[in-house]
Design goal:
This protein has 11 helices and 15 strands. The protein has 479 residues and is α+β, with helices and mostly antiparallel strands. Among the domains are: 226 residues, DD-peptidase/beta-lactamase superfamily (Beta-lactamase, 3-Layer(aba) Sandwich); 104 residues, no CATH class. The longest helix is centred in the last third of the chain and has 55 residues. About 15% of the residues have low confidence.
Length: 479
């Protein structure tokens, strides 16, 4: 009995050892879940943040954003609500491209033209003049023609008021959070405001459209004759950084828009591209004296002091030995790709001398894994977002449901463990338990046979002893 009890204790001891190791893996799941929950309201900031020193620039509000990653390289008062002036026309142009064909005709009626102030910048259209959407867009973006802006608003929405509502809604889908448009032109209205951050997000959406990208970066364009004007009209871009013959020309600038009103001051949006990096720079409430040179300084700061890397090719923290939930676990019975894969076309920005391991990250788990999405990951250096990626199931594992833990107020975290395929520790534990059971059964069978033999020996010994006694009594009797 003592031997059997000792054997069971040994088995339980080894099971606990394996279980403890395995439990550490799942403990990391629960730890990450709680960390992710707390990180929704805060980001861990490194104690020693070394960020490249930015140049001194002017203006009330400024932002430098990398378009592909959304990384905010530099910002000052980027969420302050200010008047945008004619950089508003970035949204007017984008909506026109999204809602019209380039060969559509815009008719500029008298009531449209008469609604504009006499000193507003205009193309000089006359009542009843017809022009294609394509030519209208070039005049809108290069010359900043307000009569064209109003005509396009009427073409799309029937009134400028309704078009302004459409502009505001479209801005929200582009990522703007503090924008309200009241007109299509940017002419002063106390209810017409935005922020440098919002304009960067709107521009980020706009330059993904190849038509907008081409038109806004053109330095000169000649309009076709119309039914009211037989003379071609040349439209020159007012953005100095885009025109090679102008003093403020910047060879890496590819798109942008100028703006000015007395209330807004000088506003400027510029896009520049070099070495695979695309930067959007927005200045609001500044002056002509500084704005173009300050924009150049911002671009040079971004190009020279920040690197753009592919996340999937450089991220090594999501692996089997990590304390993180996401693990590239080796398959046991089949040879396939990793269980989890990062977005192959996702990038992040790194300050010079910094590696991706120096970035902190925040994970937001997906509540629905039917499309293979496990989580969204945002990367930070200090409190600045440097990029983001998605963690998905591998191509051959996309049929798995509930691959990520789903937080629910009504269910404890530990009961919502991911439905992960075979784990090596589970296999080892299972094999050990099976072997232990087999050994225990074999031990019990052997013990049972031994007991049986002992009982038979005792019985034979007793019978032999009894026979000996009977014989002894018989001998005594015969004597």
């Amino acid at each position: 009995m003592k031997k059997r009890t000792g054997f069971l204790i040994v088995i339980i001891y080894f099971i606990n050892i394996i279980g403890f190791s395995h439990g550490n893996i799942w403990a990391s799941v629960e730890t990450d879940m709680s960390e992710a929950a707390s990180s929704e309201s805060s980001v861990v900031v490194s104690e020693h943040i070394e960020y490249p020193e930015a140049p001194e620039v002017h203006g009330e509000s400024v932002i430098l954003m990398e378009a592909d990653t959304g990384a905010i390289i530099y910002e000052r008062n980027s969420h302050e609500k200010l008047y945008p002036a004619s950089i508003t026309k970035i949204m007017t142009g984008l909506l026109t491209i999204e809602n019209c064909s380039m060969e559509d005709i815009v008719t500029y009626e008298r009531d449209i033209l008469s609604a504009l102030p006499y000193d507003a910048a205009k193309l000089g259209l006359v009542a009843g003049e017809e022009m294609t959407v394509k030519d209208s867009l070039y005049s809108l973006m290069l010359r900043s023609s307000n009569d064209v802006a109003v005509g396009l608003a009427y073409k799309i929405s029937g009134s400028e008021e309704e078009f302004a509502k459409l502009m505001t809604e479209r801005a929200k889908t582009a990522g703007a959070v503090d924008t309200n448009f009241a007109n299509s032109t940017g002419l002063h209205d106390v209810n017409h405001y935005t922020t440098a951050y919002d304009m960067a997000m709107i521009t980020r959406a706009a330059i993904t459209n190849p038509i907008f990208y081409e038109i806004s970066g053109t330095d000169e364009y000649v309009l076709e004759p119309t039914n009211k004007c037989t003379t071609p009209r040349t439209q020159k871009n007012r953005h100095e950084m885009l025109v090679s013959s102008m003093q403020g020309y910047y060879s890496y600038a590819v798109a942008g828009k100028t703006g000015y009103t007395d209330e807004a001051g000088r506003t400027l949006v510029t896009v520049a591209k070099r070495d695979g990096k695309t930067f959007i720079c927005v200045f609001m409430k500044t002056t002509d004296e500084y704005v173009f040179n300050d924009t150049k300084l911002m671009f040079e700061y971004g190009f020279n002091h920040f690197n753009k890397i592919n996340i999937a090719e450089n991220e090594t923290r999501f692996n089997q030995n990590s304390d993180d939930f996401f693990s590239k676990m080796s398959d046991i019975f089949i040879n396939t790709e990793s269980l989890f894969v990062l977005g192959k076309s996702d990038y992040c920005m790194l300050p010079e001398g910094v590696s991706i391991e120096d970035l902190t990250y925040r994970i937001e788990y997906a509540t629905d894994n039917s499309n293979g999405l496990i989580a969204d990951v945002e990367y930070y250096y200090g409190d600045r977002i440097m990029g983001n990626t998605k963690i998905n199931l591998g191509e051959q594992k996309k049929t798995i449901d509930n691959a990520s833990p789903v937080r629910d107020n009504e269910v404890e975290n530990e009961t919502i463990i991911a439905d992960i395929p075979i784990n090596i520790w589970l296999v080892v534990l299972g094999i050990f338990i099976v072997l232990a059971v087999i050994l225990y059964i074999a031990y019990m069978i052997k013990t049972k046979e031994k007991r049986k033999r002992n009982r038979e020996r005792k019985k034979m010994f007793k019978e032999s002893k009894n026979r000996f006694k009977r014989r002894k009594r018989q001998n005594i009797k015969f004597r």
